[in-house]
Amino acid sequence: MKTLSLLRIKVEATTWLSRGRLERLRIGGQVWILPLAVIGFGALGAFGLLFLIQNSVALYRLGVAVGRPELSLLAAIFTDWALTLVVSFPIAISLLYFSHDTKLLLSLPIPPKRIVAANYLLLYAYTLPVQVLVLAPAFIIYLAAQGITLSGIVGALTVMLTGSLPPLALSVMLVLALTRAINISRHRVALETSGMVLLILMLIFFQVAASRSMMSSVSAAGPTAAMRSLAAGLISIGGSIPPLLWGAVGPRSPALLLPFAAVGAVMTLAAALLVNHGYLSQMMSRGEFAARKASRGSATRIGGILRRRPVMWALVYRELTILSSNSTFLVEVAGEVVILPLVLVIFTLVTPAEVLSGAVPVIRGFPFTVSIVLGVLTLMAGFNTVSATAISREGKSVGLSLSLPLSGRQQIGGKRACFFLLFGPAFILNVLIAAILLRLGMVNTISLIAAGIPVLDLIFAISIATDLRRPLLDWTHPQQAMKQNTNVLVSMGLVFLMTIALAAIVIVSIAAGTKGPFTVLLAGAAAAVGALLLRRPLSRYADERYASSFGR
Amino acid sequence: MIRLEHLSKRYGKNGPNALNDLTFSVERGELFGFLGPNGAGKTTTIKILVGLLRPDSGRAEVDGIDCLSSPLELKRRIGYVPDEPMLYDNLTGGRFLGFIADVYEVPTDKRSIIAELAEQFELKGQLDERISAYSHGMRQKLSIIAALLHRPEVFILDEPIVGLDPRASFVLKEKMRELCSRGGTVFFSTHVMEVAERLCDRVGIIRGGRMIAAGPLAELRRTAGEADATLEKLFLELTDEDALAP
User: Fold this and answer.
1) A272, A474, B6, B172: which one has the fewest Cβ atoms less than 10 Å from its Cβ?
2) Strand B2-10's sheet: what is its strand order?
3) At what angle do helices A369-382 and A517-547 cross, to 10 degrees?
């Protein structure tokens, strides 16, 4: 069996691009999910892209001002490397060591090097969107400004397609080293959560750099000192890591593309060989050790079951247990809960005081400000993967939930409580930070919090209904349950439409003369009515879906 | 055909010995039942035999192929049914079998065996369904078909009867017998003593990673001095912890 055939079957069998899933959508008349998914995904991507474009423009201008027009490309490649290194780390752990099909493939006469190659290609495919998203705006802006040439296009494509190979190889080698150093199966969650923390720190770093580069425009007198230091820092990084510089000047000097691509190819080959060498032996030596250790550990905690607790407590505990059962879930929820507050805090800290003092009165004078804050926070809370996968996450163990003497409404009650436990405090924190940043005042802040609670309830109702309708329970690795779950995209699309509906209410109310906090309170009241109206049919629907075991 | 010499395996530095100097062999044309209480080392032995696990010491070979040094050659030669079916839930049964046939490079003109086996195991009507919709028994049947479709010379099965309906169980036993009569070898673990008693040429009983008895049932009876004892009775006596305690 050839590597590409193996890759094809892996894509078909382990990702949501499977023919079976798409066919199921078609048969079930669910094709409408796809455009809705595109809306949800597109809205999220558009925000990110807008941010990257603005940043690339600012960095390009800075590069021209300091005589290094390739500066924006250098920054983009460096960002891509850093992000790929961290993003690919948990995926490499999942694909290379914890993929559920590894045992099957190893039991077949498939050379391990083919399994490694297929997994490596899949890993590359997973990280490709990140690198294209990060690199494309920078290259398009650069080429548009410098003149579009054939060599420029070839250079851009070469860097975009091979640019992430070195960090990817490094990530794979790091995973391999970790498997040698520690029992990765026992410390997997801790490792991947540490990786997430690292990712958050990196995002903060890039947020600082991006905020500065966007806000400190290059005036006629030249770039500010802060911008000059940023440029110097980037140039210094390029000097220390020559391949970064080769990639950045590649579109102008195509000869340098060859060593750039060669570095990636050599590192990839080395990583693949190392994994191939260590892969089978790791799998073969590990055996059932991890499971044995886990079972011994759980025996020592048996005392905890003697205390009686309410059903709701047990259900919330179950949700938290599922969320922390593997690093993919844990990292996902941690990211969604802590990233926005962190970014807001950093934004507050790095924004120059004079910019804030100049901008805040203008922003506050705008009649939609408080409503926009609610809208942004609603979207951020709505674009979560936690509520729309609350049932899917249970996977095959949903049988256990179904066997419990609990109604569907009780089951989703536990999921709702867990959602509020996670996103309620995060929402309040976000409101408080926004209030400090924009000096919104006590009344507006309280109004935002009061309006936010029913909005969160409505978001949960919409998301859980999506998952109740068609939970993805037959996933083989946790990535499928959350990140690759189409329910998330459908839910995002619906939440986006819900936000538009609430925005329409706000606009109409302002046009009718409503002012200040009343606009958000009105939106909150509308959300409360919506959530209230949905409550009974949702409960009935949950009862029905649980009673029918989701049609399994 | 199957030869294990002084095989030892320990999980972790301070873990218990899963296998302890295990030595035995199974000849060509023989149907060998591998018995033992839970945690005795049956699955560990099988995993080593099929090239999925590396022993700490000792040697295992199947049909002259070293399980450790030539795992690919070994896997081409054997058919393996694991204790838990290892399948791609997102594929249909037919697509999965197609994939397995591709891996074993089964020629197109010999792929009719897929339909034949599916027919015999009464799975033909479900081959277009996704594996995720299969019951445990259907998954087990699919796993058995997947292990048989390249016509292996050695058939290694870990608890294959669990979850099978009576007809599928019967067909499987027929297949095992048929393979042995063609000169192949069948090695399987089971907790169903009646099956082992009626089907096997020889049985081996493992406990604490050591082979405590091996041979034809008649020989085991003779050794135990109980001419009419059932295999179940012999097994219970041989694996009785109190009886074995010093």
Assistant:
1) B6
2) B17-26, B2-10, B57-62, B65-66
3) 20
